[in-house]
Amino acid sequence: MSVALKPPRGMGGVRAGGRGGPFAVLDIGTSKICCLIARPRPGRGCQVLGRGYQLADGLERGEIIDVEAAESSIRAVLHEAEQQAGEQVTAVLAAVGAGRPRSHLMRVERPLNGRSITDEDIETALGRARAEVLGTGAAVLHVVPVEMSVDGGRPLRDPRGVKGQLLDLLVHVVAADAQPLRTITSCLERAHLDVLGLVAAPYAAGHGCLTEDELEQGCLLVDMGAGATQVAHFTGGNLAFVEQVLKGGEKITADVAYGLSSSLREAERLKTLYGGVLWRTCDDNIRLEVPLIDDADDEPSGEVSRTRLTFIIRSRVEEIFSELIERLRNGSDVLRARPPRSIVLTGGAAQLEGMGELAEEMFSLKVRVARPRGLQEVPGAEDDPSWAVAAGALAMASGGDSGLGWSDGEEKRTLRSGLARLKEWLRENF
């Protein structure tokens, strides 16, 4: 199967061509691990060779708590994808939500003294922002230029070649706790994989779900996963803010199990089959059989109205959205200056009935529930929200990173920056 991904939007890009091996993209989540194996295609993005999907063991809220169990899950999903692709991979780019990804926005100035702006000027400015965050002890996932101007003029999408006295950059650094990321990297290396880089999951989900207009005009991507609800705000085609609430689909399932005195397995089944967040007049008359704890599977002794199930689910979702709204109110100056014009929901929990309507009611913005883009030729993945992060990570690996091709000299020498490292690997092999 093959997927023609859109060519790079940013100033970076992958130069594909020649001979070389395929690479893998992993989405390491709380409840599942997704894998895509792809090969760069000259001038046409990537060709997807195989995919794998496995339930995740040894992870909690996107972080590894049992290395051996997590390694087994990673090996299983890679084996599934390799069997389908007929290829073996040793290089991987992983999308993660571990380490509490968070935003640091700062202004960096670069004197020009009347000369033209070069790549080195931009790389040096971004390197200064990166070094400042590294000095706090955090790990840096991404360094994104949000806004660039020369001598106080209008913002420029690409200032290279412009002459002036002072280059001013508004830089967004996505940082995370270092130890959880080191644990993930070590686990991947135990599976004999060369880790090309780590990508923040909500950033990847945005590239996997949003349209060009949404990226440009301002959109809030809300990825409702099992262990956390992660957010990425895009404006002007760039990532401007990330945040997360450590509550997701698993918390909703636990509430259903507790409220109905049932097992987690039965609670997940009820949530999936009958769950929603909208009140309906007929729900009082719909009775659901609920196997209580220690009941025989074929002899449920409990019964509950669908209204009760809706009340339990809606209460938790309202709490998640309220906490998210509060986080956004206390967010960055860019978020306040350029508020989102719409919201896109994705992830497993976002598929509950009425989720879009409830989000519109609480956020007072237009909301749509999205599925991954660019995987139309991958059977079973084009309509499955579980693939949104993996699809976005693959698009970013193809060069659609809105400027992440910029990296400082040290990163180029050591190949330590996530997507810059992947691009360097691709350049060497193709």
Strands, total number: 17
Rg on CA atoms, Å: 22 Å
List the quaternary state of the chains.
Answer: single chain
Strand-pairing-aware structural class: alpha/beta
Q: Tell me the strand percentage band.
A: 25-35%
- Nearest-integer average pLDDT: 85
**From the 3D coordinates, which CATH architecture of the largest domain would you assign?**
2-Layer Sandwich
Briefly, what CATH class of the largest domain?
Answer: Alpha Beta
- Let me know the CATH homologous superfamily of the largest domain: ATPase, nucleotide binding domain
**Biggest pleated sheet:** 5 strands, mixed
Total helical segments: 13
Helix content: 25-40%
* Overall spatial form: globular
User: Which stretches of 5+ consecutive residues score pLDDT under 50?
Assistant: 1-20, 402-416
Order of helices and strands: EEEEEHEEHEEHEHHEEEHHEEHHEHEHHH
Distance between the termini: 20 Å
Strand order, sheet with most strands: 3-2-1-6-10
* CATH fold title of the largest domain: Nucleotidyltransferase, domain 5
Tally of structural domains: 3
GO biological process, one term: FtsZ-dependent cytokinesis
Membrane topology: Peripheral membrane protein
Subcellular location: Cell membrane
Protein name: Cell division protein FtsA
